[in-house]
Amino acid sequence: MVTASALGFPRIGAKRELKRLVEGYWSGKTDTAELLDGVHQLRIRHWRLQADKGLDTVPVGDASLYDHVLDTSVLFGVVPVRYQSLQPGLEAYFAMARGLQRPATESAPAIDVPAMEMKKWFDTNYHYIVPEFEQNQAFQLADEPKILAELAEARALGLQARPVLLGPVSYLLLGKPARGVSAASFDRFALLPALLVAYVELLDRLTAAGATWVQIDEPALVLDLSDAARAAYPIAYRQLAAAGQSKLRLLLTTYFGSVGNNLDLLTQLPIHGVHVDLARAPEQLDAVLNALGADQHLSLGLINGRNIWKANLAHALTLARKAVAKLGTDRVIVSSSSSLLHVPHSTAGETAMDAEIRDWLAFATEKLDELAVLAKALNNGEDAVRDALDDNARVAQARAASSRTHNPETQRRLQTVQPSMFKRQTAFESRRAQQQARLKLPRFATTTVGSFPQTREVRQARAKLRKGEWTQDEYAVFIRAEIERTVRFQERIGLDVLVHGESERNDMVEFFGESLQGYVFSQGGWVSSYGTRCVKPPIIYGDIVRPKPMTLDETVYAQSLTSLPMKGMLTGPITCLQWSFVRDDQPRRDTAFQLALAIRDEVSDLEAAGIPVIQIDEPAIREGLPLRRADWDAYLAWAVDAFLLSSTGVSDATQIHTHMCYSDFNDIFSAIKRMDADVITIENSRSDLKLLSAFEQHSYTNWIGPGIYDIHSPRVPSVEEMKERLSAILQFLPNDLVWVNPDCGLKTRGWPEVEAALTNLVAVARALREKA
Ligand SMILES: CN1c2c(nc(N)[nH]c2=O)NC[C@@H]1CNc1ccc(C(=O)N[C@@H](CCC(=O)N[C@@H](CCC(=O)N[C@@H](CCC(=O)O)C(=O)O)C(=O)O)C(=O)O)cc1
Ligand SMILES: N[C@@H](CCS)C(=O)O
Ligand SMILES: [Zn+2]
Predict the structure, then answer these.
(1) Which residue lies with its CA nearest to atom 6 of ligand 2?
(2) pTM of the complete model
């Protein structure tokens, strides 16, 4: 029989229950028992949902209080020294995730530990906590592994449960040497034998607890691997295969792309099943089928875990039938291409969405239905699911034929784009002089990345507008007051280039999605971004049109309040593309260019209204980089072109900023140079300083603002700490190129923290100016 299962399910909950529970715990409103009971109920609800939809197996261990990579570190005792004196359990766990700052009491000394580094999970907008390994890292299985308890829970409910583990090789590859360990002498694969001992112990215990299959995620198998990484796979899996007295079966999963040249490696491994992503890479099916061993199972990643369009079930069935013809029904599993973590929970609550477009969508819950239909069609014949298949074909035809997706004016503009629209009028040196003459900024100019605290009042104001309790005018009055408060605050703190604070924006991408045609947005389509923070990616279904200016009123109002330069804030085309669910009926490049033209128009309007500085955020440009190097150049060519198209329609004296966070700059350096922004502000405060050496090595000569304040943590960095950071930065970058700023927007922080941190930041810049 063909079985159906998903690789993982969204953990946040239909109503973001996980967020409320965990944030309630952090604020002291929820105690430990309530937290643990709440997440337990949520897990059960998600497992039951999958079983009720007709899936044969449920994943166990994919849910997490903060991040599943952090869970893996805790599971194997990979806790950096600086957290080891904290209370083990939730205190140490959350301190690793988000830092911990607590004043001294009579009985306990003060605690002040920063958070661990966060990075993008492959090419997604999900962030994981980067494991830190000592030179001779010890691995020690937790006394009470959470996954064992969860397996017992699922089995007690009578469910067929499949524990999910991050595989040892991917885990090692995702980590980094701990502080003080020299990167040059660090050999992560030297840690493999010790790590495998802990994995084997865990697999033994899972087997004893009743697991028959374990899902081991090895997404690194879709990357270009070093020889050392390739060599690690057979070593690892030979050892793991012997675990569970050889009774346990391992399903090794790959996702986010094709296994490509790693297929030979994969099929040598002594594993019982393989999962491949057929949504991103359907072309790999034949090669995988040919390479599979005699008894190996194949899990077909047919239902897209990264996008929200209903699947083409006829196409999926064609692929699945091919697998069944070769392997027989008992060796085939139908599955999601990746975990469903990256799509929202359900379309069920989307009653306000345009009905025609809603009919085209499948979120996680609806994807479970699709999986069940596929399995039924393969097991019982298509007639058993005739209505579902007919309905699916009707939707695909309706979408393809819809007049809603095309706009002739947008198409015409794209045809008339000229090469001159991708270039500033003169080179940076000349622009720099004109901008200095206009803005008269001091050395080490200070600014922020754009957003200021999105307080409960701000979010509630938007909720009132949404519910019709406030008129648009009442909301606008409220936002103006927020803008004025933010401008006065920045003047008082002493920043040099101000921002309006983005209080009118729910999110830097969703806001633009709501303002542009060609987009729809959901009411409850939340997707985890990091920890308890979620985003609601808007959905691009058609050609992009900017019906009217999107940011002009607020920016011009903010500028009218101050004589200091005001920076207009826009989100760049690649970030809008990357953080939206995008249409799959045209190349991403075409959508990016449509977005770029809309943003170019906004830039022109801001400039014409006298705004002297405009920031076009592109934090997602690195994240969009294809996972295989062979595909990088093609992507970077159009991605940078899209940025240039959005940003170059201004005079020399208008200063263009861009901002990037969580970027591994070394990989895309020449692209960043080609973007030719006058100022780039970058994330840098949690990562080490090596990224700055790239700016030095590549003789980057435009202005740079490496973040010196980690805004993702509630911790306030001291003057001394920021001074040290800045001095270290100045070893790599010339004084006259450096700006001083936080590493990202301040929307997640509270005003008191922001006041304390920015006061320190300005003090550091002023002290440096005096020295210079
Ligand atoms: C810079 N980052 C971003 C990424 N992706 C984006 N799309 N946007 C980004 O900014 N990726 C990389 C990083 C990730 N960083 C963050 C940072 C912060 C958040 C975040 O704070 N998310 C919020 C939700 C934001 C939002 O859309 N708010 C809405 C709705 C707010 C809400 O929950 N309202 C309540 C009612 C009000 C109340 O009573 O409080 C409700 O509807 O129930 C808004 O402001 O209107 C979060 O809370 O998770 C995400 C990624
Ligand atoms: N301007 C945005 C950028 C975040 S990446 C902000 O400040 O929130
Ligand atoms: Zn940022």
Answers:
(1) 745
(2) 0.95
